[in-house]
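Contributing: when you submit paired examples, paste them exactly as shown. First protein:
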Amino acid sequence: MTINTYREVDLVEYIKILRRRKTFILKTTMVVAILGVAVMLLRPSSLRYEAKGIIKIGAISDELLMTQAEVATEFSTEQTAYEILSELRASEQPISERQLRNFIGNLKLAKSEDDSLLANYQYTAFQSVDKMEAKKTVEVVQKAILARHKEQHQLKIKHRDEIITQKEKELAVIASRLAEMDKKINELFTLRYPASYAEAQGRGLAEYVVIRASLDSAVRALDIEIQAKKRDQENDSMSRVISPPRIPDPLIEASTLAQSVIISIFLGILCGVIGAFIKEWWQKNSVLLRP
């Protein structure tokens, strides 16, 4: 005859077991949670390196770069990304569309109020050397931005030179006409009978006044362009890297950390509950299991 040494355990007894073993469950949860977070921190793929570099753009407030939205998209184009990636990559393999999209998505450009431009590149690490890659990327980005800006700025100054040359020609023509009018006016007013030439003198004076006003206006316009060119050249000389990127420290994504903590706590509670039942069962049945 077989004697049943096991007895049924109802739900109330399960709850009592959990209450008795709550300290064990809490300790198990804490240990598993800490281990889970530690494992997450030791995984390179969970880290992110964020390199930042600040560039001073002398004419960023001018028509070249007007708004922050334009700044954010000015250099985050496929063409610019392709040029930068081509410089970064040592291999000659073609750059894929995915690499271009990832690069554009990781590169953040923002304009500040003091005509500075912050280049921020986020690099998700898979190896410890990726922090150097992030730093190098920002350096190349800074150089590309400055080169692009200076190229556009030089085109603007060249256009300004063309305007100045044209206005200097106009000024020379007006000055020549004014010299001719001076000669005519002198001839009219040095005649022996000036009264008989009063009408001619009046027309000559009126034309002289008009040409003189045109000359003054042309001189002012030329001076405005010359001053604008000088200001553009000064702004262009201000464009430089004022804060090169440093080797970034590893950063942890808040979402990744939160997800890891939640999963670790859940697994800790589960392990604690299972362990509590196993421990309770062992204490009650260890004597019966002995030979």
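Second protein:
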Amino acid sequence: MQDPYTVLGVNKSTGQADLKKTYRKLAMKLHPDQNPGDDKIAEKFKEVSAAYALLSDEKMKARYDRGEINPDGSEKGFSGYRQSSARGANPFGNMGGNSSHSGFGAGFDAEDLFSNLFGGARAQTQRPKVKKRGEDKIYKIRIDFLDAIHGSKETIKLENGKTLSINTPNNVKEGQQIRLKGQGRPSMSGGPNGDALIEINIRQHPYFTLKDNNIHMDLPITLE
């Protein structure tokens, strides 16, 4: 395994919040559900997860920085030794899926770490995997007052880089949301994507206002 700092693209001074943010970004990009059938990406996902598991543990990070352990978490001079070895204890406790090995070796379960970070940690006992739906994502757009009355065609860029054209309905209200099915964030467990929610904000018109579905006009007049 490579140096965990190199794998994650961080350095020794990187704080835990930034470390978590970096791992989250890489894990979402490299997760096997996002890259089905790509064994190289799957291995990279495991490597990134193992690197984060080591560096997110303050004690293990300190030991690695002092040169006491290898990048995979095993003691210097050993690799994946059994618990019956001279040292005995597994330095990563229950972080892996197989407690018979130290470090991250074959017993390390990147999916467990991923599930813990993104919420809903998996139980230790085996159970059917629930395919959760991806999260919804809210986007805000501003349209002119008259477009809110008559409807308009708008373009929006999603966070995945995809560009969509949407038609706003007639008489749309401030704060009203348009739901785009399946255009939200991807599921991390193989479930359906979430939805994109397009929230409408209406620019003020210099003369017209909308009150109780009626259009009012403020018109300055001169009294002689």
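If you have annotations for the second protein, write them as plain sentences, like these:
The radius of gyration is 26 Å.
The chain has two domains: 4-118, 137-217.
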